[in-house]
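Hey,

Quick one before I head out. I ran the complex with inosinic acid overnight. Inputs first:
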Amino acid sequence: MATPTLPFVPASSCQVLFSVEQIRERVIAIGKQISEDYKGESIVLVGVLKGAAIFLADLARAIEVDNTFDFVAVSSYGKGKTSSGAVKLIKDLDVPIEGKHVIVVEDILDTGLTLSYLRKLMLQHKPASLKIATCLDKPERRLVPIEADYVCFKIPNRFVIGYGMDYAEKYRNVADIRLFPEDKV
Ligand code: IMP
């Protein structure tokens, strides 16, 4: 078996931006808010792979109203921090969402291109309602006008890893959210 290559920047050397406890607190608060907003209703959480998988897993368990979840995947033609801006759907919904209350769950709302694309796409399926939940929001980076309905943390324009978020597919498993050194991006 080939020796695995270590990440060139160990996660332990990256500064913690939000601890496991801080994340848990916010996810529980957002789950509570969603439970109040959708009292008596059923909702479908649509996670955006792969970044939102961990946030969705925690959020779904923090929501007390009846919920199911599904995933979509998009490719944004970029590696690491850079992206060309073109978004393409590479995995569609498995279950119909027509007439359902849908919350799209994303890891980071950055330029807004991904969520604008997905919002348009989801609306074509005629859901009863459509909202957006994101773990992080970088408002300074927005290129298109879109806001999330539920946000755990607003952050400045810094590159982050952990809690599902990657740099070149690494670090998604890091339990907290950390700042990735800008000179390494
Ligand atoms: P947007 O289309 O620019 O809003 O891009 C959103 C996507 O870019 C997110 O779902 C992430 O996959 C990725 N992204 C943006 N900022 C970061 C970051 O700081 N760390 C990791 N991924 C990021």
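Residues 16 and 93 are 34 Å apart (CA to CA).

Talk tomorrow,
K.
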